[in-house]
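Data card: per-record layout.
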Amino acid sequence: MLATLKRLMAAASDSPDSCADDIEPINATSDPKLAARLYRTMLLIRRFEERVYRLFLEGEIPGTLHQYQGQEAVAAGVCDVLGERDWITSTHRPHGHALAKGVSPRAAMAELYGKATGCCRGKGGSMHLGDPAVGMLPAIAIVAGGNSVVSGIGLAMKLSGDDRVAVCFFGEGATNEGAFHEGLNFAAVQRLPIVFACENNLYGASTAFSAVSLVKDVADRARAYGVPSRIVDGMDVLAVRAATAEAVAACRGRKGPTLLEFKTYRFTGHSRSDARGYRSSEEEQAWQSRDPLTLLAPALSGPERDGIDADVNAEIDDAVEFARNSRFPEPAEAFSDVYA
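The structure for this 340-residue chain is written out next.
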């Protein structure tokens, strides 16, 4: 897996079928507002996950958790180029996607607490976080589940004749599921406005991708369906945003779908019971040295970073208190928001 990091640092995909590799990266120093916005989104996700972890260990939050630390650049960079009318589908690891797409920390935290003020009224919990009001379908915990559903969303957008875009987040493990191939092929044939965003964090639970696929890069699989693809440094939020902006522009121009493979790394285990014994400390340290927050930090001044940190911490504190003080759903509410 260290080889993956070295290859990523060396080059992106040179496939003739890939999106243009000469996209100029956004210069954060020339757009300080952009740098601050992206940094704040990533820090909000990081602090949310850190607080949630402690609350879970203290017994305040029920269920289980699949956390997002390390992958913040993907959610922040992708969602930053989307509008309110664009949609995303998510996975069993949805907290970062939700916050980046616009779900408020209050609504997200209350959902994890199982409270009626949560974004899914306390009925979804961690693995089904989302809110249609901000363009996020409640997350689908089934591996590759979103890859099928997003086809319907994309088709609806195409038939409506507008320029909306759908983004499907999924992990590299999903690419061994039939739903991935079916969804990608259908989107290609129908030229649907979908960005397939693969978060390749190298492991499906505890299984290395290299142990279940002879194809090293997920991006190569898109060639079989005539879909342009690109490998992107998923630890660099500016690279993520630039590649996504290109893919989204292609969708709005009715050129069909694009697959983006973001090489990234989760700093935590697969879930709260994962001790990460299948990963070496050398590998973890190498990837942690490319922490997306650390990479972007030089674009901001020290006082600016301190101000964002204080603001984010206050917002997380507020979200926790809001969740604690919110009511649980009434038993009768189990029958509301149910559709046949």
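Known properties of this structure: The CA atoms of residues 82 and 283 lie 33 Å apart. The first helix runs from residue 2 to 10.

See the next section for split statistics.
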